[in-house]
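U., I forgot to send this yesterday:
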Amino acid sequence: MLDLAGVGPADVVYDLGCGDGRIVIEAVRRYGARGVCIDIDPRRIADARANAGDLASRIEFRQEDLMRTELAAATVVTLFLSLDLNLKLRPRLQRELRPGARIVSHWHRMGDWRPERTVHVPGPDRDRAIFLWVIRP
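Result:
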């Protein structure tokens, strides 16, 4: 997901529904980005913070509803949600993100919004698709 988004040191990666934080942690560790972990579940935020270890100073941890999260500062948004949530988020992503911001979704599309790229990753039981969209002016 991070490779597909072309994450680099100038990026701020938001993971909506971050779970254990692994995507943001990897963005910080491997690519030098800053990150924001967002999850409504306080246990998941605690897990993400604990997993971040020494990298926690480069990551903001927010226990909040991803549907109410302010998105304007994100340059990359990662999603592993559901089709329904993606569709609900889509108008906000298109409205709030700046041109050039990238959105990467694991497994779920955004309705009729055509991705700029799709990568298929082999899995143990089936291939998984990863989709990339870029906000255009």
